[in-house]
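hey m, so remember when u said the tokens were messed up on ur end? i reran from scratch. heres the input so u can diff it against urs
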Amino acid sequence: MILRKMMSLVGVGSASIDLILPKVVYQQGEVICGYFEIKGGLVEQQLKRVECDLVQFKRKEEDRILDTATILSSTIIKAEELYKISFTFRLPEEMPCSGESQSYGFKTRLIFDEGVKSVDHDPIKIIS
């Protein structure tokens, strides 16, 4: 048991997160309704928060965070159990469409009281 706990502190066998979206293509200003799927690891872990950034990836520039959704929590993620948390996000009305020079995506982080954070990336396409 102690070995499992130590492994989760360095990221081996720790809980993981996946943002589940109903589709990949969205319009400017659209409301996205999906959910986070959290799968417990080898040992239970104390969840601190879930952070989800809407990121703009530009071809020749640094990535830019456009908006962030944060869910604070004190939930204990039990070993190997599955959890779902609702996700609702309104895209900005005035964001440029996806194209060759820029793309978009959500970067989700699962933050624990102890241990390594879990990260998920989900690309989306923005149209007018």
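this time it looks ok to me. The two ends are 53 Å apart (CA to CA). if urs says something different then somethings off w ur setup not the seq
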